[in-house]
Amino acid sequence: MTLERFMNEAISPWMREEGPDHDIVLSSRIRLARNFADMPFPILAEQKDLEDIRTFFKEEYEHQSFGEYTNFEFISIRDLTAIEKSVLVEKHLISPFLAKREGAAAALISENEQVSVMINEEDHIRIQVYFPGLQLTKTLNRALEFDDWIEEKVNYAFDESRGFLTSCPTNVGTGMRASVMMHLPALAMTKQINRMMPAINQLGLVVRGIYGEGSEALGNIFQISNQITLGKAEEHIIEDLESVVQQLIEHERKARTRILEQSGIELENRIFRSYGVLQYSRIIESKEAARCLSNVRLGIDLGIIKNVSRNILNELMVLTQPGFLQHYAKKTLTAKERDILRASLIRERLQIEE
Length: 354
Fold this sequence. Notes:
This protein is of the alpha+beta class. It is built from 12 helices and 10 strands. One of its GO terms (molecular function) is protein arginine kinase activity.
């Protein structure tokens, strides 16, 4: 396995599976922030300290396996091109913050891309585990098992009263961010999502875009995650998040039914117009592509469109992002060139599916 393997496949192998409530919940993620007890945190550390941590992970974990997560690939961020960094961010294998880090920043990524470890990001260690659909408890259990495996060789920065110590005070405690990626087109169409966001925030949760903090909700895809990490056990954080997610699923399904009953022909028109745009456009911008892909996916979920798989839509959501387009073209592209190539790739993939 090489970096090229991660770059060439738009969909990670685990994403091809369908989890619970897969029509609305795309994925569940657990991220654990950890630090070495005997090293200054990245924000204050000397370059030599960070290099030592980078070397430790390369020597101890490169090509190692943990259970079903095999052959971890070690990737140095400083060795990547700007386009390669963009692709890994677009696949959620690394964070935008890590992509901007210089020097000793690195990542360990399992062969099936379900587990990644970001090294020398905001913290020394950030473990990510993904599962398809709504599987927060299973994702948490797997993340904690993996965390224990790392802790066999690493003495974590931990305080008996405060919990795990992190660079940012908002992560102190469990060091955990639990998040669920949801496709909520009906709530977006009816503007209900805008009314729900303040209520969700009051519950200690936050609604973000597809790439987390500061990003947009492209294609009506929203990330719901916890804000509180101190004073609550991981299991209780998961319970609170899952309760809100279940309510969002219920509201989304009711909104879809209501739109079908009250505005069925208008909804079909919207879906098939989007399908037509994707099939025949010669130039298409990323936001329009995401909006049309969202509408077509809704059409698939409602049984209105029957000859396109969800996996094609999932793949195109990633494949049509700027980094992937430029990787595909093997060169840097202007905005217009990306819009032309985006339209071409979408047409090609939809024709293959038909």
